[in-house]
UniProtKB/TrEMBL annotation:
Cross-referenced Pfam families: FMN_red (PF03358)
GO cellular-component term (any): cytosol
Gene source species: Dyadobacter koreensis
Protein name: NAD(P)H-dependent FMN reductase
InterPro entries, per database record: Flavoprotein-like_sf (IPR029039), FMN_Rdtase-like_dom (IPR005025), NAD(P)H-dep_reductase (IPR050712)
Record domain NADPH-dependent FMN reductase-like: where: 5-134
MF terms (GO), sorted A to Z: FMN binding; oxidoreductase activity
């Protein structure tokens, strides 16, 4: 049986980013028939311009990777009550080409504050709705106080968080299965 391909996108470009570490942790939770690829080109994408038809290079690669994935997981920090510009820029490149249309998706925000980055999550979910993703009420998670849930190397040390991430992944896999059945 062909392995399911999930594309994981972190909204943070930081080294040792908690959001990137969350996605790596989810990759570690994936069952044998699921491969989770961490997208690493967010900082290479040019500024979005609807006048420009980017058929090659990083934009084409980003679009192709999303297109060939069975589902996507995005984990983002909150910057000034919104999602980071680099993440919105990437998502703007696929509005007209529609690679996320009818694609199962999961969304996470993680913050050192006890709000869990809920403004960023709300904003991300609105954009994912505009892009036509398939989600349900179990497809999103705001993670507060993230610094206390990861150790210095970025490993999850909070069992409840590990369980929540597992449930989010299981739900995404269920959505993919329903779509493909
Ligand atoms: C410019 C800037 C603005 C920020 N604004 C917010 C904010 O509005 N809400 C929030 O919860 N955290 C805010 N933070 C803190 C980030 O949530 C924190 O840096 C987080 O760890 C970033 O995620 P990362 O570890 O994945 O890079 C901000 C950080 C920066 C650098």
């Amino acid at each position: 049986m062909k392995a399911l391909q999930i594309m994981a996108i972190s909204g943070s470009l930081r080294n040792n980013s908690s959001n990137t570490n969350i996605l790596k942790a989810i990759a570690g939770l994936a069952p044998e028939n699921v491969v989770i690829h961490l997208y690493e080109g967010l900082d290479k994408l040019p500024h979005f311009n609807p006048d420009v038809d980017e058929k090659n290079g990083y934009v084409a690669d980003f679009r192709n990777k999303i297109d060939s994935a069975d589902g996507v997981i995005i984990s983002t920090p909150e910057y000034a009550f919104g999602i980071p510009g680099v993440l919105k820029n990437a998502l703007d490149w696929i509005v007209s080409t529609g690679e996320l249309n009818e694609k199962p998706a999961a969304a996470i925000s993680a913050s050192p504050l006890n709000t869990g980055g809920e403004n960023a999550l709300t904003s991300l979910l609105l954009t994912l709705t505009a892009l036509g993703t398939i989600r349900n009420k179990f497809s999103s998670l705001a993670i507060p106080n993230i610094k206390s849930k990861l150790d210095a190397s970025g490993t999850i040390i909070d069992n409840q968080l590990a369980e929540s991430l597992n449930k989010l992944l299981e739900n995404l896999l269920d959505l993919i299965e329903v779509k493909q059945s």
